[in-house]
Task: structure prediction
Amino acid sequence: MDKMLKQALLYDFYGELLTAHQKSIYEDFVLNDFSLSEIGEDRNISRQGVYDIVKRCEKLLNGYEEKLHLVQKFLTAKEQVEKIHELAGEILRTEGVPETSTEYLRQIENISNGILEEM
Result:
């Protein structure tokens, strides 16, 4: 998985467990793509200070994931729902599917599509 995507997911799941100061700096670095220098200049702290805070946040967020596995569970569930959606679509494209099955498959496809949009 791309490092920036992983950092963003970790922040989405565990960001509220950081202090307001940590959140602000981490958001600017990871989500807003500001440089360490830009963040330091804006907050009147050294580039090294910003780097230390970002690394501390990464360590905390990774630690939460190691204990709780919420990001991994989310990604696994998303893959499974994508597979359900794909399989329902394939069955619907198959000729000779009974009308009652077609209606159930459309419902499954709609539900799985709704879940994927929410993820």
